[in-house]
Amino acid sequence: MRRIVLLISIVAAFALCAGAQTLIDFHDMPYVYVPTQMPDNYPQSMGLYWDNFSYVTPGLWSGAGPGFRVHPSGNSVDVAFAGGVLCNLTVPCTGMIKMNQPSAMQNKTFTPLNIALSAGWQANNVTITAYNNGTYVGTVVWRLTTTPQTFTFPAAWTVTQLAFTPDYLGNNATIPEGSVVIYTFSVMLNN
């Protein structure tokens, strides 16, 4: 009898966790012809803030590089990105996704599961650094090409912030900074 109760408890826990997983794919963003600042609290009610990320409809933007134009789903939907032509002294190349922590959401964290990424204009590395309420959690470095790839985050990451820093590419006068394009992002909210 104890084994049955334990098994039911485990199955219920997995069901609850699976229900909290969210796929962010930007399908409900309005079509835009030029890079536009990502709105905070996207998707609605998740409490995620997007610092130094823009979004764009790749097929409508004449400045989109080859990494913007190959959506893994084959659809022409918006993508989020950081770096590349938008980097300057006022807009840092590092994009951050972080939990907004108003009093109603104190101690909220998220677990990043996987993410589909590419480089926007040319291959580069992206360093992703994770923090939980200001405490360093870990770093991964992924090699991006202009073809989307899906990457899996370390399973132990429970975070309040992810910083995406593309490499500096001093060899390209037109686009000296690397870039990171996000097609989809699977995340699980905690607490």
Task: Give structural notes.
With 191 residues, this protein is mainly beta. The protein has one domain: Jelly Rolls (Sandwich), CATH 2.60.120. Helix content is 9%, strand content 39%. It has one helix and twelve strands. The strands form two sheets. Strands 1, 2, 4, 5, 7, 10 and 12 form a seven-stranded antiparallel β-sheet that branches. A five-stranded antiparallel β-sheet has the order 3-6-11-8-9, with no helix packed on it. Strand 8 (124-132) and strand 9 (135-144) form a beta hairpin. It is globular and about 45 Å long.
SSE string, helices as H and strands as E: HEEEEEEEEEEEE
Query: How many separate domains make up the residues?
Result: 1
Straight-line distance between termini = 30 Å
Helical percentage: under 10%
> Which parts are unreliable, with pLDDT below 50 for 5 consecutive residues or more?
3-19
CATH domain topology: Jelly Rolls
> What would you say the CATH architecture is?
Sandwich
Q: Please identify the structural class as seen in this structure.
A: mainly beta
What is the overall shape?
A: globular
Count of alpha/pi helices: 1
> β content, as a range?
35-45%
CATH class: Mainly Beta
Main sheet specs: 7 strands, antiparallel
- Radius of gyration using CA atoms only: 18 Å
Number-wise, the strands total 12
Average pLDDT reading: 84
